[in-house]
């Protein structure tokens, strides 16, 4: 049965408000310390009513994680659309994504922990985001091949290899481990980018 437009809009507003309150809690006290009862109390709703919109706290977590991943997607899309060379685009893109992840860890530790929880509990959300990034990598590699900048036979395979090489600088737990041990992750990433570009056939 279809809901009237007005009713659907009201439901969307309630759903958005639940996510807003949940995110406020996650940022302030952390994902693991926030219960559905806490969210319902702040909304002046019963837990049963909140469950009408989201079947579990994990479902709320997934939606909020998507918001953060969309921030990353926006950064990636802007860089991918620039007039820079393929090498410049790829380097800037990888550094920007890494900086976003590092900033989230340092400045928004509770949100970092939430993303880690999503990767453990709902990997499909993060997997879809990574697969989307690989399609962007592939498009950039194809640009480089067409411009004579890169020399690879299979851009799709090359894009997957770029993803694998970048993963230590993308996975939140690996970033956290390096930061805790005082490693200069961006310097290491720049070395990795030079390796990636050489592997793609970019001349020195």
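Q: What amino acid sequence fits the structure above?
A:
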């Amino acid at each position: 049965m279809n809901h009237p437009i007005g009713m659907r809009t009201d439901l969307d507003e309630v759903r958005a408000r639940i996510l807003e309150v949940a995110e406020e809690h996650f940022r302030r006290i952390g994902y693991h310390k926030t219960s559905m009862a806490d969210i319902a109390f702040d909304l002046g709703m019963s837990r049963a009513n909140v469950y009408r919109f989201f079947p579990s706290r994990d479902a709320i977590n997934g939606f909020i994680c998507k918001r953060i991943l969309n921030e990353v997607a926006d950064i990636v899309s802007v860089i991918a659309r620039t007039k820079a060379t393929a090498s410049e685009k790829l380097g800037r893109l990888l550094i920007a994504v890494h900086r976003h992840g590092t900033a989230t860890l340092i400045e928004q530790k509770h949100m970092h922990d939430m993303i880690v929880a999503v990767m453990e509990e709902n990997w499909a959300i993060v997997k879809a985001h990574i697969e989307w990034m690989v399609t962007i990598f592939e498009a950039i590699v194809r640009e480089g091949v067409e411009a004579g900048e890169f020399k690879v036979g299979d851009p799709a395979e090359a894009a997957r290899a770029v993803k694998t090489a970048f993963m230590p600088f993308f996975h939140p737990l690996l970033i956290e481990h390096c930061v805790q041990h005082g490693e200069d992750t961006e310097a290491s990433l720049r070395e990795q980018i030079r390796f990636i570009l050489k592997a793609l056939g970019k001349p020195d």
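Q: And what stands out in the fold?
A: DSSP finds ten helices and no strands in the chain.
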